[in-house]
Input
Amino acid sequence: RKKMKKKKKKKKKLKRPILHGVGVVKSLKVAKRITAEFHRKSEAALEQAGEGAARAASETERDMYQKASQAALQRTSHVRKFVYSTLTTLNKRPGKGEERKVLNGLEVGAVTTEFCCQSPSWIRFRSIDLNSQHPKIEKRDFFALKVCEDEFDVVLNSMVLNCVAEPEDRGEMLLRMAKMLRKETGVLFITIPRRCVENNPFCSVDIFNECLRACGLSVVLTKFSPKIAFWVCEKKGKNVANAPKLNRREKKTKKTNSYFSVRFHRSERRRIAE
Output
């Protein structure tokens, strides 16, 4: 008789606590859990306090979020490849036969040094972050930077806009970045979580596109991964649309994924309307 083999029961692995200290995050799985938990808490705070309310994350949470993001980005290079390949496709990369020219770039909310230290010879990036994790990344507040028009050829804003607490500050961030870009040639890269513009009564893909056009930006490319939305915009001479009017009284349903929205201050609304 053949002996029946007993099936071994798989033991369930116990999950480690999300915030287990301010050390270096090495596990990609743990890094994803930390970033997801950080965004979940931010969304829950907005839901409880109402749309437009701010949540001030503690220093420990913010530090762990950045270390987790750093660990996740070290395993992949899809953002870097997407940026350089898109610039080449848009004919922004200087050709070999052209006069030696180096593009000037700004990276907002830098987590790693892949752009400021590992960029090709034809582009130079200045990387800044509010809570810098590397000496090569400037510890600077983007809103404290002096806005110089036509200063940068490329501006990167990856997973930063959604971390800004107030909708009006998000609108100001878009306007400041648009002013910094060179006219007709400047390119802006924006990435935000896909849930910010899906099943959201306060912001959809169309509404976000209108906000970008109101800042004088023309959307040339949109791309969606399972969890992230990408925008590539070029700067035009004048604003090409009015600031969208958002419905603040719209009810929040249980199916809502996000309370992300973008608004402009009254003074900016008047300027855009002109």
